[in-house]
Batch of 4 targets.
Target 1
Amino acid sequence: MTSLQWLTALMPVLSVFVLLVVLRLPATRAMPLSLLVSALLALWVWQMPLRQLLAAMLEGSVIALSILWIVFGAILLLNVLRHSGGLDVIRSGFAKLSPDRRVQTILIGWLFVSFLEGAAGFGTPAAIAAPLLVALGFSPLAAVVLALIADSSSVSFGAVGTPVLVGIAQGMDGATAEGLRAIALTAIGIDVLVASMLPLILCLVLTRFFSEEKSWLPALQLAPFAVIGGLAFTVPAYGVAWALGPEFPSILGALVGLALMSTLARYHILLPKEPWYFSAEDKIQSENLQREVAVGQGMPLWRAWMPYVLVAVLLVLSRVPQLPLQGWLNAMVWRWPEILGTNISASLAPLYLPGSLFVLVALLTLWLHKSPLSCLQQAGRDSLARLGPATIALMASVPMVRIFLQSGVNEAGLAAMPFELAQVAALHLADYWLWVAPLVGALGSFLAGSATFSNMMFASFQQTVATEAGLPETLVLGLQLLGANAGNMICVVNVVAAASVVNLSGREGDIIRYTLVPMLYYCLAASMVALLFW
């Protein structure tokens, strides 16, 4: 590639980083600017036909609409719970289990997020967990940052194993069930040593950046509990991956972890004597909450939690291919084949999207919580009012990504932009590929907004480099899988969606600055473990 072509291929990454992170522009301004620059360079330098570029943008618009539907459903359910009083009951229940903000971070930000990722994936965990943390008293910025960092390790087996069973399987040559199982076990084996530290990292971020005292010490005081919280997920997940395959490690690992860590929290095992709060004011508010009686007009805790339980159950049932529900929900599909006469197609299965399940559960919540119809009307108005900034950001960022990915059709004789970048990296960095492999996976997730698509896009490429560099193919593909997980922390689509749910649109650059270092830790630590033990 020429230097200008190299710059063009990097532009979607560079423009997002500079505009969002360095210049701190809101995504509503940064993403349209990034789209404009990337589109012009794709036409001029990459020589994409205008029809191909417009088709890619239209494909991206369809994908963006599906993400917006998920965001709307998550906000609607949250607002219905808020108006029904259920959210206050949930807050009270967590305060009674443990008022300690570090413990709540591990239970909700790490284990509940991991369960949601295993059940649904595709941005759902942060969209549900972030507002729940805000309801407990976390700042919106802290809630989004923690949810995004936590939604990483479990992504390997997210959406009932989709990143492995679809992403790796369709992306690599000669995929077999035994080969996929070996890749999955390699990834989760590394995660036992790497991702088990993520709950401690969550607590370090929490106490150092989002508390009044700005100290690392409170997190370190909880280190035994936090590390056990990490192992409580990764070790059972490894066992499930070994015994059952890649469909259920995140779901079952998170359930085991929740049961264990909730028990330790309830009986105050491995916890410091005094709970930790963000500030003195936060302590007073939490203590007042614990004293409240008859919160939410006497609603029992099980009834308050039932909407989230229903969401989790429906997500699992609708994602298991052996059950008929998946087929029923996928029966209605809107297809747009050969957009503008190109090889690009788009499809949408509205009933299968998590957003539809959220809306269904929001309707059922009216009956469960004995709320009037006016509660739904108010929740709907509040939810629609929150979608504006997210709509602008997503309708620009996703089309930009699709231009990047669909750029293989051009008159310059070049491959698609991500493959050109990866080939240059392989040419110069093959000797250091165990360090580079997870970063390639992270780049794919950062741009595509999906670990599954990152794996699908780069698995074959990683195979080729592994063969040429004389590296174990299973190990390199395992690092691709882990890198795709890490990229989930900083991917623009997830950041925009999570920020919009907690009314934080415009702070996307701030969010990425907090999640960037944990993302790099995940990638580099995985490489180090691979070098030392494999």
Note: The mean pLDDT is 90.
Target 2
Amino acid sequence: MKNVILIFCLSLLTVLNAQVQQTHDSERLHLAHTGKILFLPSFENLNRIKESDFIREYTLTNTSDLSFVAFFDRPLTEYMAQLHPDIKQDSLFRKGNYQFALWIDGKEIYRSNLLPGAPQKKVQDTAIILHRPLISNVNGQGSWSESFWNRFMNNGGEEALKDGRHQLRMEIRPYVNGNHQVKTGPLMASGELILQVSRNPVIDIGKIALNIPAPYDGFPVSPEPFDTVKIKQLKGLVSEGVFKRINSIIVIHQGKLQIEEYFNGEDRNTLHDPRSVGKSFASTLMGIAIGRQFINSEDQKLGRFYDFKNYKNPRGKGEATIRDLLTMSSGFDGDDEDPDSPGNEEKMYPTDNWTGFALNLPYDPALKNKWHYFTAGTIVIGDILNRSVPGGLEKFAEEKLFSPLHIKNYRWEYTPQHIPNTAGGIRMNALDFAKYGQLYKNNGRWNRQQVIPKSWVKKTLTRQVRIQNRKEEYYSYLFWNKSFKVNNREIEAFYCAGNGGNYIIILKDRPIVIVITASAYGQTYAHSQVTRMLEDLILPAVVTP
């Protein structure tokens, strides 16, 4: 027994000594580099970083990672307090943040006052070392520092970082927005890095082989020809990291499997999380429920399902309709694109009742018929379905949607009440997502069975609400609508879309369904790169003039 205790004590002493040594190493780095920004080729645990890990030159490719460590003489909050001594210290977090600036070859390319809120208040109050990723191709989740780099690339960085040798300079300052006036403080830290940029790889299509599709339940192989050169170029660009975190590309032509490609370790059996693509399934199940007369119509008022006297802000809510929620144009004060909105989805997830969160929100009739992206509204749709269909929503979806499509391997996420999460996240493989898209192309029929009422499909594939501040984009019953530009032509599509660059696309006037799964979650480039892929390569390859 004494030996066991001795071994335990020696092990504990070893761990404590290692932790003390790591603390001393961090302190030495801080003392040696106060006021400086140093760079690393990857994002590692700060306690493991050694002086020799910092880089002065770096080859930047499409698959490179890049992070930085900034060493300050005092925390951000102390800088902000000096800028605005009249603002209480506890309020500074809401009034200011870091200002980041990037210079290329002596020219300022991009300067950004980070929005209040990230990094967290504790970091701003205490941190004298800031270690963050700028580029994280493997593990990145679109954190505030990655978003800053992506904004830099979209606002001049792409043009400035042409292939070749460049000098990158980074600067960090404090800022405070007080009394409607932005004050910027002194330099907190700066640093430079020589970049050898190599971001335009030469794709040798002679070395690229396309996957030969095999039949899949519901999809025979298509004999239709397509431009193999463009798809090989696409495959090469994905492999080289020009298009990032793309997991699969599926093309269904006239109900048959034409193109099937996988990347990043996924295959036709992988259950993929498409995030908000799952919202569209809520619309589908609502249409089936209405068709089977478990719900009267999408014009039915919410007062039929809820006694709003039991909720906050009850006035007007009973007159809202299911259609309002399906088109994201209700009077509920929820907008996921506004972080300060009372109904922003990020404020819903920590609560123990998501439906209650939505129904307790403020209600403004002036918001009705004005599109605003309202995830919490899809939770209410799921709750209404769960209350209305026999056996509950999960059983209903299995019997009336997935079983007719022979979709057997899928996985729901759930709300705190264990109702299927109709906000998104239902997982299945790419080919089963393609079945779902083809079901709409078939006007709701599958294997001679009318799964979705034809009238519901028609309504869904009709523009319902215009999306403000977007050129010629519309919203339908939890489906999006816009046109893609291909060789001076516009090709209209209705589609499901989800965070990370996930899409199920139904071309309006062509017998084509396209599925793209991706995992660029939280990344600002996620959707724009899919548009490039579609307009430059996929659609030109499969759409005939």
Note: The mean pLDDT is 94.
Target 3
Amino acid sequence: MKTDIQIAHEKKMKPIAEIAAMLGIPGEELWPYGQYKAKISEKFIAEKTAEYKNSGEKHKLILVTAINPTPAGEGKTTTTIGLGMALNRIGKKACVALREPSLGPVFGIKGGAAGGGYSQVLPMEDINLHFTGDFHAITSANNLLCALLDNSIQQGNELDIDPRRVVINRVLDMNDRALRNIVVGLGGKANGVPREDHFSITVASEVMAIFCLATSLSDMRRRLGEMVVAYTYSGKPVTAHDLRAEGAMTALLRDALKPNLVQTIEGTPAFVHGGPFANIAHGCNSVRATQLSMALADYTVTEAGFGADLGAEKFLDIKCRMTGLKPDAIVLVATIRALKYNGGVKKEDLKTENVEALKKGICNLEAHIDNLRKFGVPIVVAMNHFDTDSKEEIDTVLSFCESKGVEAAFSDVFAKGSEGGIELAEKVAAACDTESDFHTLYPDDMPVKEKIMTVAREIYGADDVVYEKAALDSLKQIYSTVPDADKMPVCMAKTQYSLSDDQNLLGRPTGFSLTVRDMKLSAGAGFIVVLTGAILTMPGLGKTPAAWGIDVDENDEITGLS
């Protein structure tokens, strides 16, 4: 069986100017990064998004999400890419809008995030590794802010910053548990003021969230300046603007903010831009990429990370709330192996037929269908096919979807490309033509605790929410810093493996309380991060990291990426 990277290397890519022409982007508006990837000029982005907004046209927006996954993921990106290609195959003008992969999973447990099999975005090794340098720019901007803060303390501390109350931390786009808790400033007076510090993975940073939610360079600059980075000895907030940091941060991020254009394995245009995790951040690609795609194509297929309890909820309650985007259809990706996993089957046994476990775990699919219906958008279930799925298992899931009154389609885009997604594309296109009554889960001005309770009960199925003292103290500080904090949405940080905050509670857990252990104000991004359970903002590598299998061969080609 061919690997993803072998399949990718067999495909002859089109020059990026040809892909751009399919969307009406002239060559002079491209900023090429080699032959097969390019950024789009600021002038063109502004003109086309404004033109579309003023035209009164409504191009279709399709959100792809999933049930709770196994640790290996469930092919949501593969399905997103395959659906975009299949829509083009049936005569629609479609474009794909994806997140950029983080090096954490690439070298960790999941591997790359450029799709798989015959449903990939190319060049897959570039996209999975350094790509156009966006994540490095975000990392640098964040760490510049941290350096300016520590320098301010060192150079007389005119802002009266309390080193014990620094709330910004350094980031790195890598899984590195040894950096979760560190001490900086050691080695004497010349090396700074000693204090406790932490590292998060880049995709969990507020700078990443701002990058993905900003609508323009000036909007990003304003948001960066509003970031609360520390508190004074008297308890007053210190912002990035107080440190005079936002200008230089914007300079580092100027080029990165331009969306990246690439192509799928079949030549469908794809914007791949931004990449926050959905379990510890809001999990959606950049607003600018989504809006540009919608301005240029009749159908935009985008994704939100992990299960619908995380990425989709945040796409709908944060990204759509802030931008006015309204999805026309939601595709819920399900796999038989994940349903068996939710039915109690161990990861190593998922390839074996087990209809009873499937029936037990199918309640997880039911929960996500019920939850997504609360947003008023038509739903289509995509059964992402694995070659170990048996006919009885497939029929069981399709019959269940029929009993729930939801459209379902078998998807084989991994093995067959767009041809394997024709049924799905037809059903999704039909869903886009039906009535959509999109609304958010909670109103803008609901108190923070009530928003948390609403998500906990309506999406996770919790009976109650329990707050640890640190969370209550943080909420009090948030209200002191932002008196109208009740107008901000909540960004729930939670395990992706369960609807609850306990990754061991699979299926559709009931009778549990959600534990909130801390909260963090992301004033620039415009939301409040709610940390639940044992969620960490800096992952660690596993016993057998994917990095062990990645290399460069004698032909100067990267191997082992998947």
Note: The first strand starts at residue 30 and ends at 32.
Target 4
Amino acid sequence: MHAYRSHTCGALRLADQGANVRVSGWIHRKRDHGGLLFVDLRDHYGLTQLVAHPGAPGFESLERLRAESVVRIDGEVVARTPDTINPNLPTGQIEVRVSAVEILSEAAELPLPVFGEPDYPEDIRLAHRYLDLRRETLHRNIVLRSKVIDSIRRRMIEQGFNEFQTPILTASSPEGARDFLVPSRIHPGKFYALPQAPQQFKQLLMVAGFDRYFQIAPCFRDEDLRADRSLEFYQLDVEMSFVTQEDVFAAIEPVMHGVFTEFGGGKSVTPYPFPRIPYREAISKYGTDKPDLRNPLVMQNVSEPFRGGGFGLFARMLENQANAVWAIPAPGGGSRAFCDRMNSWAQSEGQPGLGYIFWREGEGAEGGAAGPIARNLGEERTEALRLQLGLNVGDAAFFVGGDPKGFYKFAGSARTKVATELSLVDHDRFDFCWIVDFPMYEMNEETNLVDFSHNPFSMPQGELEALNTRDPLDVLAYQYDIVCNGYELCSGAIRNHRPDIMLRAFEIAGWSAEDVEKEFAGMFNAFRYGAPPHGGLAPGIDRIVMLLAGQQAIREVIAFPLNQQGQDLMMNAPSNVRDAQLKELSIRVTPPFKV
């Protein structure tokens, strides 16, 4: 017999009754039933119940061992009695009657329990991640991650993509987030950078003629952390040659749809082609470029019923042509209590309040439209609002006014809050869409100068003519995002593959030709020697798995994540290094600058 096991802890069935077997694993939990000792033994594959009788070999050892000790068990497979069968376990019809026990590793007192998975402080969970990973939910998430990556890789190869690896040590790039820098010992005073993404390398692969590339690529960005973002992450990096935007969509949609159908637990998945929503339309309808389409609420511009009307606050706002009034419909929210609750929420968000109208049943003063706005606006304009929004008795509408650039994010949050409070969001779906037609440029609020709004290497719609003849803020780019359930899964673009367009695009953003050629020398020079039209995108692996696992934070689908301060509490990183190491690198550490 094998030194440690003849079967895994998830393998035994009723058909194995009478067999002498050997299993090894962790003691998951123990139960003493009138002298009989029942032990759940756990390994990567499942649980097997052991039963030990007083006086039997190994009984005393099992009785004294702590949970999470590792043991090897010999015994006979026996059928459970009908009243003790566990239908929730694949091994629930049998148990192993223990005949021998060998202690392989005895566990000390645990800093956090594994069985039952009670809530525990995150710092303890991360400091002892090897224990946390034994918990069923987290263990299952990490296995799911492996299977998702395998499925993605298989689907990409079936579509004719080749997997190539790109460098980890590369040059610092001035665009995007902050780089993680790596000092060079061989070249004192100079630094490598860890890649924020393989952006330039994958484009160079297209210039080199490889046509269809993908990679499960590690990326590193020194930026502030949040629940769906980490300093290091993985993405499905994709690039294709001789393609239009629609070609890229057609290649990636079956992969996304297939993976979410395969691992989505029966939830419906948007059929492809996925809806295409222009950026400005997404902002005006949903208040975000990451709309959750499971939320059925669509905002509308309702400026006209308020223009010159009796509700003075909005009427005065609308005298400025840049301002508007948007409405958030609230079907089923037609009560003063709900409207007051939303108004209080808005104040908790730092807003002066949230205007509203609600429609209620009744005659005379008790019926029809209610609320301060309705009283001041008048019956005719209020009815026009109701008809425009498609609302009825028992419904409500909330209003936000001013310059949409200043309030659209709050309006989007209000839309989400209304739908959540009224239970309008369908949680049994994965709703995909593309956000397209991003502006090429935006006004930098700090410098009041034109800057890139998204990816500087994107092809502007209209190409060189658009850059030369249009207001930069009106130029759109062939840039696109995939959004699912309110999460941005990826960004992508059709690339700018012509040096003349690239120089002009950067010139508008304040770059000189010399700066472009210096900072992006590798890619710029390559474009001079014949570059194909190409484009790609990079869905985030961590966010994909997070959605499929039903989690709210990517650290629940990463084996060894950092905490919110960017620290690895288990390995004590980042850490100080020895003076000798710094000397080798020609580096001296100075105290942080005081701001």
Note: The radius of gyration is 30 Å.
